[in-house]
């Protein structure tokens, strides 16, 4: 059996398609720049990236290759000979399926290794999550089994490209309707999981069971429909079919809370966030993001230098997902796994500005060209931190310069008064003259 499997792996088209998928996948995973990537550095997103490429691109191509290989015997009119082999219809289908799936698993492992190496080079946390990868491998098995079944039952030259196009259209269609229960039976998980989320392992493993059982059930279908010898017998397909039906029904009946992803759950608050402190300024990150502590320290140092003894500003920052610790605390958004010091500083300075109460309409200052008064406060803080601000015109720039030209004590008094005014829904005082 092993020798026959290796022979089929060498002879079939799946090896060539797998090589093409490997080249495309490695390019896909290595071409992104670390500074702009939304996955390099977060293990959740790393495995989602591998899984979604493996399912949508490689799975569709391998399904088409499996359909072409499975239809070869009847296209070349050799089915009379192949049907006389000692193996029944089901083992023959399993052999073709295994030959293609093993190629896809090899490519899948290479892609996972490349992606993990890129994230490990950034993140100090070496704890990959495996359930999304297991689901991707099982879904690829399901796609290849569908290709084998289609190629056996519809032995036409058009079947192979039709299978590849069909899978792609399925994923495109369900991308527009992700909340449809039927979409869960074709899982190409394309959700953004930052470090505040963790995989819903139970649902991912249930989907893995569904894909695996459905694949084995599909492989028995051609022999049943063609009335070929099934071997090891029709009863062997019953428990596998029951498992597929039960797992699929379970997936379709599960629900996620409103606004929450289906395949992930929110992570519990960490007992020990990763924090840095500079004077009165503190910034805390998720433990999995502690590779950003040097950037957070630089940003906190800049904020501390810019605000000094000024009161009324937020000086305690908690990354999105962490609980804020009081009126002096603010949310610090971190949208990418890799953030340079300049971007972190800009985000922290913006978070330091107090927010107006809900329902408060921001006053427009004629002295700065009719812009909201909080713009002037933010520009003054950025200027003290030597961080660029948007250009709103000459009148606005002159107002900022009047603030910077005042003595340090006068600047501090104006910033404190302006911060209190914004927090109390009052207009900020005019710039010092």
From TrEMBL:
Entry keywords, A to Z: Membrane, Transmembrane, Transmembrane helix
Transmembrane segments: 12-30, 50-70, 94-114, 134-154, 166-184, 204-225, 237-256
InterPro entries reported in the protein's UniProt record: DUF7224
UniProt feature coiled coil, ranges: none
Domain DUF7224: 284-425
A Pfam family assignment: DUF7224
Protein name (record): DUF7224 domain-containing protein
